[in-house]
Amino acid sequence: MSRSETGRPGQAVRIGVAVSRFNRFITDQLLAGALDALDRHGVGEDARVVAWVPGAFELPLAADRLLRDAACDAVVALGAVIRGGTAHFDYVAGECSRGLAQVALQHGKPVAFGVLTTDTVEQALERAAPEQGNKGFDAAVAALDMLGLLQRLADGDGAGDG
After folding, report:
1. Pick the catalytic residue: 40, 68, 88, 98?
2. Domain holding 56: CATH number?
């Protein structure tokens, strides 16, 4: 697989997308949004790797391996954790979030958090809908924005004004 160009001239990138199969009726929509964002920013199919995992709890390990073994420059993590009647939500959502942040810091590379943590299925569907602000799209854009920021900082150009 080759690397694609982003909006920043000369910056070729390889993006990993880790997606949870749990609540797939939602994560399929998040993935479609993320892939749309990558397409719009010039990151073609040959410059991205999609890795499916069982659930949100497994996203940090997949993100780690996408950065390490698949030589990705950034990862977009997508999942949907919906509150139920037990404490399971708190453990899964909290550990997923903590793990993804830890992976980003260990690798010094962006790991965008596109994991929905909602109280209801309806809330999750709203956040995954293309016409209402798909959070998979937003997470992919955030990953690319962070790549641009890190490159500017490495080049000594400063953080920019946004």
Report:
1. 88
2. 3.40.50.960
